[in-house]
Design goal:
Organism: Streptomyces hiroshimensis
Helix content: 25-40%
Distance between the termini: 41 Å
Family: Belongs to the amidase family.
Structural class: alpha/beta
Pfam families: Amidase
Number of helices: 17
Order of helices and strands: HHHEHEHEEEHEHEEHHEHEHHHHEHHEEH
Strand content: 5-15%
Largest sheet: 11 strands, mixed
Protein name: Amidase
Number of strands: 13
Length: 488
């Protein structure tokens, strides 16, 4: 098939997802240039409104697509090149050679000379990186907006956020600009946007995807992971990006997530947990978020699983999260070309990283293993924990923008109290679509949590659930593209 591929067919292929695009490319039904051109055109069309991308690699991506087409013609698809010619996006906290890594910050950042290890692995699998997606400043908030790039909007409702901090990646996948994207998760930053844009998002085991050139990210709380429409696509991207660098501090044993997506999970014992870990902020579970999670619990029970309400013993896990998070902010804030351009709240958090460094940080790190034993006790009796992904539906754009640092922290903890404990523990978690709010049809998510190296079990369970729910058949109303931005 030539680059004059029918636009309708291209749209169908783009919407069909990662695995189907890879299959069509390997079968010669479409060229990489055609898919990449189509992706770039959709990005350009939606960028004034959705604002999903910080950097678009137009010429470079097309050159990479042409190189992929030559390799496809030589029969190199499949095997070690499972993503050959497929357009993907990555979050702007990983390095792409020739592009700056601004991580949501304002300023003149120099281009990077080499790819991050995760990007290197995606390229080694044959992927074409079409651009870098927006993220709030240093990934700190569950919304994607800031003075450096404006507001990133949710394709399901452009008055609402797609979440954060991987909000640009989520918006790009939800709108069909790319079939999947690589995000990162330091307190739910993959799972929150997945929930609020009707996607599958996986935070894998710490170290499953290398953070190199960082030996670990944000003192070990941040992991890279996939956002996609289907479990199989998320598993495919996770498998392609997985692997360690010699300099990584965390190098878990490999697991086969691709096979897991095709495997029946067996009958599992699932703990339904609706109470979040303690945090020093008001917490309230929206009735529709609660109902969506309970409905998923009932669906799992109908599939033969035993679902029982029970809560993990979190203890004082929140006291170990803050020093690590703020220390990471301080480290990153020290790298920006012009610190004066940082958000006032970032400066407050960076100062907190200084105050909570040293001995306090060492104590926080030392508490991780006792916390694993305490929380992990529940897995003596259960295989998986089911929780809401967030306590509320998507926030409105600008809802956090004018708040003080303390009020911002309180608001985001209240909205998103369910995801961050798993970042402390380093264990896998994933968000799956759980339905929509009744009045505004805003997406909601449910979270599946497991112990160390349990990605295969979570993925098998999610795939079984997906076969019943068929959430991938539901898309945002495309008329969002006809709207105009409410603010810059």
């Amino acid at each position: 098939m030539t680059d004059s591929t029918d636009v309708t067919h291209l749209t169908d292929l783009t919407d069909s997802g990662l695995a189907e695009q890879a299959r069509a490319l390997a079968a010669g039904e479409v060229t990489s240039r055609a898919l990449v051109e189509h992706s770039l055109a959709r990005i350009a069309e939606t960028q004034p409104l959705l604002n999903a991308f910080r950097r678009v690699r137009g010429e470079a991506a097309l050159a990479e697509a042409d190189a992929a087409d030559r390799r496809l013609a030589a029969g190199e698809a499949g095997g070690r090149l499972p993503l050959l010619g497929v357009p993907l996006a990555v979050k702007d906290d990983v390095d792409v050679a020739g592009e700056p890594t601004a991580f949501g910050c304002a300023g003149d950042f120099p281009p990077k000379s080499a790819d991050s290890e995760a990007v290197r692995r995606l390229r080694a699998a044959g992927a074409v990186i079409v651009g870098k997606t927006n993220t709030p400043e240093l990934g700190q908030w569950p919304v994607t907006e800031g003075p450096a790039f404006g507001v990133t909007r949710n394709p399901w409702s452009t008055e609402h956020t797609p979440g954060g901090s991987s909000g640009g990646a989520a918006a790009a996948v939800a709108a069909g600009l790319v079939p999947a994207a690589l995000g990162s998760d330091g307190a739910g930053s993959i799972r929150i946007p997945a929930a609020w844009t009707h996607l599958v998002g996986i935070k894998p085991q710490r170290g499953r995807i290398s953070t190199w050139p960082e030996p670990e990210a944000f003192r070990g709380i941040t992991c890279h992971g996939p956002l996609a429409r289907t479990v199989a696509d998320a598993a495919l991207l996770l498998q392609a990006a997985s692997g360690s660098h010699a300099g990584d501090l965390h190098r878990p044993p490999p697991v086969d997530v691709l096979a897991a997506a095709e495997r029946d999970p067996g009958r599992l014992r699932i703990a339904l947990s609706l109470r979040p870990a303690f945090a020093a902020a008001r917490q309230w579970l929206d009735p529709e978020a609660r109902a969506a999670t309970v409905r998923i619990a009932e669906r799992l029970a109908s599939l033969g699983h035993e679902v029982i309400e029970e809560e993990p013993r979190y203890g004082l896990i929140g006291l170990t999260f803050v020093p690590r998070s703020m220390s990471g902010v301080r480290e990153w804030a020290g790298r920006v070309p012009d610190p004066a351009l940082l958000d006032t709240r970032t400066k407050v958090n960076a100062r907190g990283g200084l105050l909570l460094g040293g001995g306090v940080l060492r104590v926080a790190r030392a508490a991780e293993e006792p916390l694993r034993r305490r929380v992990g006790e529940i897995f003596d009796r259960f295989d998986v924990i089911l929780t809401p992904t967030t306590a509320v539906p998507p926030l409105r754009n600008g809802e956090l923008s004018d708040l003080s640092s303390s009020r911002t922290d309180a608001a985001m903890i209240a909205a998103c109290p369910y995801s961050w404990p798993w970042n402390v523990l380093g264990w896998p978690g994933m968000s799956v679509p759980a339905g929509f709010t009744a009045r505004d049809r805003l997406p909601l998510g449910a979270q599946l949590l497991g112990p160390a190296d349990s990605e295969p079990r979570l993925i098998s369970l999610a795939a079984q659930l997906e076969a019943e729910e068929r959430w991938f058949e539901q898309w945002p109303d495309p008329t969002y593209a006809e709207a105009t931005p409410a603010c810059a």
